[in-house]
Amino acid sequence: MPLGGLNGRFCYELFYDNNQPCSDCPIIRGEKNYSTCLEVRSAGQGERILLVSYSKLDDHSEGKERFVHLAKDITENKRLEENFYQSQKMEALGSLAGGIAHDFNNILTAILGLAHLAQRNLQPETAVMEDLRQIIIVVKRASALIRQILEFSRRGKPALQALRPHLILEEVLPLLRASLPTTIEMVVDIDPDCGVVRADPSQLHQVVMNLCTNAFRAMEGTKGVLAICLSRQEKIVAGRDDENDEKAHFYVVLTVRDTGKGMAPDIVSRIFEPYFTTSVKGKGCGLGLAVVHGIIKGYNGFIEVESTVGEGSAFHVYIPALKEGALVSEIREMPEMNLMGKEHILVIDDEPLLVKIHQRILEDYGYTVTGVSDSREALKKVLAEPELFDLVITDQTMPGLTGDELASAILKVAPVMPIILCSGHSDPFSPEKVFSLGIKKYLQKPMGADELVRTVRMVLNEHNELNV
């Protein structure tokens, strides 16, 4: 504003676009020393943040008190500061999540183990058996959610694998149905022969849950229909092939449709921006669709959105389908094997409950098990009788000796001892690091009883074949 335009104007007019003095104005209150700084927000052409200093002048000409105000625009500085604080919060979230992951995964491992032990004493077709099956499913989903939080906060690499997405939906939909109010009708149309995609099962679960949660919020407080469709489509997409700008590709398409309030075009254009949300405070942080977009983009897929205000929205998620020839080579059923054994296994975990659970599970399959909750005591047992044990299963994060330290010490006296390392920590070991330590297998907690027993038998079989 030109200087002439400022003469005779009050500060509250310039900074607050107001016609009355501020209620806490130091000048109105008659304070003598006015030299200070305040942050004020200007409501002029877009909200601006100003750092204002003001002081009284000694000039008493014309019998008037005079004041000088200095205003510095610090809007950009404040935005950078807020972004910094936000990044610090995200980093703190990652550290917090990593800190609790170990203990939480131990708890989930215990729940899985106890559920398995309870199942072995029940008839197959009973209500309690079905309840236990649902507990196992829910625990696995809780484990997946932990991994998703850690991947988002620490940008971990997803575990991509060839999978049939209809199996993910069949697992997710009962949980989703239980969380929806009866006012929402759920219509499902899944083609079990839609194909195979390369994806992370936990991430794919997250995509479905985020889209369906978003659809529910669009219908919250009203009756509506949530339609979920999974199909195989051939689609011509420009610019997705080096040899031809327009070539047909096969996709597995997930469609989530709602009959909610819909979105205007200007909202649709921004829905995948991080922290952008149309939800009221406390009902969403604006990350759900941004996460979905990032996941699908990582699969070389894309999302199309249809929305009409007052009629609802539809999200079409396109994930590239693997070629038919990949079905046999990339998806294999776990080979059948006799899981029973007679070997002597040493189990080490600083959680005594987990030691007891794993001991009971392995003893049910015929193994002799020695359980120890102190890694230093476990090392003493091996040093005293190196030939006593046929296999060692150890946790990683323990007081005294960590799992990798214990493994290194054991291998010095028993170089061919097969060792399985388990961890509930947020930063899993890479296969390269595990093998470089001489460890035969790495298991990420929470692991179920079936995974534990199968891994034990597989490692022992491989060891026996190499040492015939």
Q: How does this model look, in words?
A:
The protein is of the alpha/beta class and 468 residues long. The chain is extended. The strands form four sheets. The protein has a five-stranded mixed beta sheet, with helices on one face. Strands 12-11-13-14-15 form a five-stranded parallel beta sheet, sandwiched between helices. The termini are far apart. 41% of the residues lie in helices and 22% in strands.
List the helices and strands and how they pair.
Layout: H1 11-16, E1 36-42, E2 48-56, E3 67-73, H2 75-119, H3 127-154, E4 161-163, H4 165-179, E5 184-190, E6 197-199, H5 201-219, E7 224-238, E8 246-258, H6 265-268, H7 288-298, E9 302-308, E10 312-320, H8 326-330, E11 344-348, H9 352-364, E12 368-372, H10 375-384, E13 391-395, H11 403-413, E14 419-423, H12 431-436, E15 441-444, H13 449-466
Parallel strand pairs: 5-7, 11-12, 11-13, 13-14, 14-15
Antiparallel strand pairs: 1-2, 2-3, 4-6, 7-8, 8-10, 9-10
Helix pairs in contact: 2-3, 2-9, 4-5, 5-7, 10-11
